[in-house]
Amino acid sequence: MKRPTKAIITDAGFASRYLPITKTIPKAMLPLGSKPIMQLVVEECVEAGVKEIIIVATPEGRPIYEDYFYNSVPHIRDQLRSQGKEDRYDQVREVLDLPKIMVIEQDQGLPYGNGSPIVSARNYIASDEAFLVLYSDDVVFGASDAKLLLDAFDEHPDAKAIVAAQEVDPSVVDKYGIFQLKDGDKLDYIIEKPNVGEAPSTLASYGRYLLTPEVFTHLDPKNTGLDDELWTVDAITKMAQDGDVRVVSTKGKWLTTGDPKNYFFAHLEYVLESESYGAEVGAFLRTRL
């Protein structure tokens, strides 16, 4: 397999826990500090050297992403220039200078599930190239998991897939796909959302994968699993039955934005660590405790 140069980033769900805002705005366009979640995930890919990015969106979300990543808003630039504030446009230039970004719609004929956006991008992946998949629900602070996966591919170029992992508290294993390993760092299987007390480990899968095109053999609409959804981890487990799937632990800190509570925690952590006003926010919080 060729070393990956493409990444698929998914934001094609209904995000019903965020209604009513997500009836108009894609969930990954919600901000972390001054940037939308999606831009941070794209920047993670850029840090890893990815050349092409495919964003899989809903029909309603596609034009919003296209506007964000393609529209140069010259009227805003001209207004800022006339006011002597053109430096504020620099953040727009940073967005426009990102690598090639294509926005496509998820195939509405596919079952619900986190595997369906990947299948929707099938025609953009050559049969001899591995590729990255990132779920925009998941953000990683302090490191690029995309780079972690590419470095692992350099070490294990014959792997059928490479997946990122992070230890979680035993009380929340029922919210994630949980790994069972064999022979050190090789995947035995993943169980999706096991009952607390019945999980094979506390090592959780989240939305950072390096996959080979073989995954499309298993991401078949007929192969639905839990809740009649098409699960990426089910396909990866099947790949592990025929060859090596490697598991690598993140060097950063993974946080999910998949629900409003955890989104708030991720937003707060990002502001405290990355925004110029983070220290002031921290001081304010201390006065409220």
Q: How is this structure best described in words?
A:
- By secondary structure, the chain is α/β, with parallel strands linked by helices.
- It has one domain: Spore Coat Polysaccharide Biosynthesis Protein SpsA, Chain A.
- It has helices spanning 37-48, 62-70, 74-82, 90-96, 116-120, 145-155, 215-218, 232-240, 260-274, 278-288; strands at residues 6-11, 31-32, 35-36, 52-57, 100-105, 131-135, 138-141, 161-167, 177-182, 186-192, 203-211, 245-249, 253-256.
- The strands form three sheets. Strands 1, 4, 5, 6, 8, 9, 10, 11 and 12 form a nine-stranded mixed β-sheet that branches. Strands 2-3 form a two-stranded antiparallel sheet. It has a two-stranded antiparallel ribbon with strand order 7-13.
- A hairpin with a 3-residue loop joins β9 (177-182) and β10 (186-192).
- α1 (37-48) packs parallel to α6 and α9 packs across α10 (278-288).
- The protein is globular and about 65 Å long.
- It starts with 5 loop residues before the first strand and ends with a helix.
- The model has no long low-confidence stretch (mean pLDDT 93).
Please count the beta strands (DSSP E, at least 2 residues each).
13
Shape label: globular
What is the string of SSEs from the N terminus onward? Answer: EEEHEHHHEHEEHEEEEHHEEHH
Main sheet record: 9 strands, mixed
CATH topology tier name: Spore Coat Polysaccharide Biosynthesis Protein SpsA, Chain A
Helical segment tally?
10
Number of self-contained structural domains: 1
Cα-atom radius of gyration: 19 Å
Structural category is alpha/beta
Using the 3D structure, state the CATH architecture: Alpha-Beta Complex
Low-confidence stretches: none
User: What is the strand content?
Assistant: 15-25%
The proportion of residues forming helix, as a percent range, comes to 25-40%
For CATH, the homologous superfamily is named as Spore Coat Polysaccharide Biosynthesis Protein SpsA, Chain A
The whole-number mean of residue pLDDT values reads 93
N-C termini distance: 53 Å
CATH class term: Alpha Beta
